[in-house]
């Protein structure tokens, strides 16, 4: 939040004097309302500020279905929102834990998925200074760096989702006192007492001792989080500049990457992964990939992401999305030129001299997945599809998913690589495959 505006704060209000500039003028805010004391206080504060500041206010409750009291929490939120004239949307989600995921992490993921559906200018969350202190300590205990320590900013724009946390300067005790003073009712989630969860363990067994020995620990940890956020912002700026300098088209230059210091190499790769939107690799996986690049291992070297891979091949690091081709995709009648969206990519029909007969575009063409052993007629006999893809420099990861163009049951082209020479004409067309 670089730009802010200030208005007089009414006595007793816990909202900050400074609001994000993004929320100036007419705006619509949606409160993440669990029914607990924190979110109830936040909603009460915003209801009180609504008339003065002139914004629209609504709320969203996420029903996780994890407690026998979940329906009662929905009813509580609905009663309060009706009394306070706040539109409420309720979304039920299915929390399914798979693999090594924690229940808490999956529930949080589903909650934020619901937030992303919001049409408001910002989703407002009731995190306070105690939550921030717990998050900083949890991230430290997990070995997190600057970005992890700065994981709970007051304002965050994540694509189309804007999150605002206006109560980070307030403590849990301040919110409780406010709720009691104003007669605000709330619901209690018994799972918050379960010390098998790390956050609850910190909250009930560690934080009280810290508060007794170091009364200002919350403010100090909040300051550390802000310093970490500043450091993370600088790292992002440097990584963005390094990425721009090392990009060669859609790929990353290996030599350009290795010309940087190891810390900048790691930051560049992390930044690129985040920019591509496929999540961050583990530190161990990232270091293994970087080490293989430095060692100059022959052949393809890959870094696995969620739904994609970074693959090094012939001096370039490419993003390869994990796509599965259907066995056969019949094509409609085509024109030249034309760009056709298909499963796992796009098929471009381009003029070519020589090329394939224009009459073939009328129908009978299909894209098929490779089965292995296919051969395509060339001037000097037939060549295997495998040989043609290798000679064209197609990434090994893409070769197995490269579609083939058939006319009826006859292989007529490896799109973007070669086409049959048996039926070529002087003024024709050629297919080009553009993988996602």
UniProtKB/TrEMBL annotation:
EC code: 6.3.4.19
Residue ranges occupied by any Lysidine-tRNA(Ile) synthetase C-terminal domain in the UniProt entry: 365-433
Similarity section: Belongs to the tRNA(Ile)-lysidine synthase family.
InterPro entries linked to this entry: Lysidine-tRNA-synth_C (IPR012796), Rossmann-like_a/b/a_fold (IPR014729), TilS/TtcA_N (IPR011063), tRNA_Ile_lys_synt (IPR012094), tRNA_Ile_lys_synt_N (IPR012795), tRNA_Ile_lys_synt_subst-bd (IPR015262)
Record-given protein name: tRNA(Ile)-lysidine synthase
Coiled-coil spans in chain: none
SMART domains on file: TilS_C
Classification of source organism: Bacteria, Pseudomonadati, Pseudomonadota, Betaproteobacteria, Neisseriales
Gene Ontology molecular function, alphabetical: ATP binding; tRNA(Ile)-lysidine synthase activity
Reactions catalysed, as given in the entry: cytidine(34) in tRNA(Ile2) + L-lysine + ATP = lysidine(34) in tRNA(Ile2) + AMP + diphosphate + H(+)
NCBIfam families attached to this UniProt entry: lysidine_TilS_C, lysidine_TilS_N
Record flagged with keyword tRNA processing: yes
Function, in words: Ligates lysine onto the cytidine present at position 34 of the AUA codon-specific tRNA(Ile) that contains the anticodon CAU, in an ATP-dependent manner. Cytidine is converted to lysidine, thus changing the amino acid specificity of the tRNA from methionine to isoleucine.
SUPFAM superfamilies in UniProt: Adenine nucleotide alpha hydrolases-like (SSF52402), MesJ substrate recognition domain-like (SSF82829), PheT/TilS domain (SSF56037)
Alphabetically ordered keywords of this record: ATP-binding, Cytoplasm, Ligase, Nucleotide-binding, tRNA processing
Top-level taxon in the UniProt lineage: Bacteria
Chain segments annotated as transmembrane: none
HAMAP family: tRNA_Ile_lys_synt
Chain's gene name: tilS
Residues the entry annotates as binding ATP: 34-39
Subcellular location: Cytoplasm
GO biological process, one term: tRNA modification
GO cellular component: cytoplasm
Domain-related comment: The N-terminal region contains the highly conserved SGGXDS motif, predicted to be a P-loop motif involved in ATP binding.
